[in-house]
Design brief:
Rossmann fold
Length: about 675
Amino acid sequence: MSDTKQNNYLKVALLGNPNAGKSSIFNGLTGLSQKTGNYAGVTVDRQEGKTNFLYNGSKIDLSILDLPGIYSLFPKSNDEEIACKTLLDEKESIDVVVIVVDASNLKRNLLLATQLLDLKFKTVIALNMIDEAEAQNIKINIAELQQTLGVKIIPLDSRRQIGFLNLKEAIVNAKVSESLFYDLNAAYIKEYNNYKHFISATLASVKNKETTQLENADKIYRFNTINYIIKKNVQSPEQLSSKKITSKIDAITTHKVYGYFILLLVLFLVFQFIFFISEAPMNWIETAFLNLGEVIHDNLPKGQLNDLIVNGLIAGISGVVMFIPQIAFLFMFIGFLEDSGYMARASFIMDKIMRRFGLNGKSVIPLISGTACAVPAIMATRAISNTKERLITVFILPIISCSARLPVYTLLISVLYPNSKFLGIFNSKGAVLFLLYLLGFVVTLLTAFVLKKILKTKESSFFVMELPVYRWPQAKNIGIMVFSKVKVFIKEAGKVILAISIVLWFLSTHGVSHKFVALEIQQVALENNSTTKNSEELKKIETQKLQHSYIGQFGQFIEPAIKPMGYDWKIGIALITSFAAREVFVGTMATIYQANDEDNDKGIKQKLLTEKDENGALRYTPAVCWSLLLFYAFALQCMSTIAVVKRETKSWAWVVVQLVFMSALAYLSAFGAYQLLS
């Protein structure tokens, strides 16, 4: 054993082509929940996890580094460059390289594999998707191939967790291949000491005609060798049955006319199902929180603590938690589309449209990912090699409706259309939600078109994407993904909502004006003499107290600026608090209306439906609801998004322009909707 092995610690780098199942192997080795999907570009940054196991009575610790998928060691995008430079960085101290190879597409995968073997790292080849290769009647002579490549080859079925123990043992016993697949001397490239030196020098140099020629020479030389290896070690039928089925389906789903209608239909049905199947669990959660509030209110001694828990914490948290079923179902449907392979088709058919607006098909994956969360979607733009297109995509991504907007949309749509259908069978709520997401997409394209005219570039772009065979999604993979996404949502949103709920409760139940103090005295007197008449008086006092509280005074101060959009001071408070995160709007509204109402058996939706303005008319009219929907469709109210845009663009100027543009768009859209509909 080497010194590294004697210390029982190895640092392992996972590399492979996009869509080879690298992230699934990472999850299988570490037990973590790295995102997986049946399309290229899932991993956009390095991910690191740890695992350990017993080998010959000793505990072996492995640090697994999952790098972005690459097709060769000559990077074409930022994420590919991350992978190559990390691998060659001596500070990383990589002990073993695991090359993940798709057994059903061996010829393409061996280009990168032979390049990595020539770098002379200790190496293991993980022959993934061996089950698919067998299903397609592809026969691989593993023993002979192992001898040709000079390293251990481990067959794997990562979807069913088969072969992972063998892979761990092979990592411990990994060795350097003695085979050489590209002889620099034979290729007349004698100024480099070895292939690692050659690749490092190429990465450090500016892309020019000479480096392009060297890259082409490398690939041609290798493919000649690979063709010989495949011919000798792989037997496959001329046309695979799975590819026949895929081709037949693709004739419809990627059709130049039908393909767009199918994509719209898929998205429309997704939003219909989101409302249809989430309604019952949402009502259960809301009822459970209302009952919990009543139990605490009735059994805990009356006072500040009782009020804080019932009207502050429970009201604020329940206002967001009740929407978790919808968020979970959204992630589930996105995961299904990704894992099945349809997401890759969506990127393919949208490429032509994207180009007309200054983008290309590579922007589709970040845009679709943005429906879950803009932060990882913005990071995914690293796969876009064209600098201008990447900047445009980063700029427009926050306009795409994300999961944080979903609680806001759901609440307002439920108030707007409490119980209605169209065409007798379709849910109006689902249709409005679909239109809001579609509106966000249309506005992103129009914004991209304007930016295309402003940002001039001579850099040409291209979009090449592998369309994987269709696969039936694995319920376990989707379940893990949904669980991890919901957990992150609860954790991130929960911290903000918990803090804001406490602050809001204090500001809404305290004040310094003489009027507020007088109302408190009057309230205590009425509570000690409880009658039906006094109960009505108490409700009026609660309303007046809220108006004269700290939060009420602040809300009335900003009310003139938001009144043209149809908003009162209560909505204004929710707009301010939700700047940190959009979903806080619902929690804020729940806290404010709970503080304004002693009736604890009504949820936030019922309270908004019955809320009246100073003239006795309904506050949440269609004009106000649509105004709010459009405001939240376009406003950049997410501190995490602002931070990641700054990090990815390395410019505060881009962030400021983006914030000003989206704020102006949100305000003008909300103003226009209210004025037109009121």
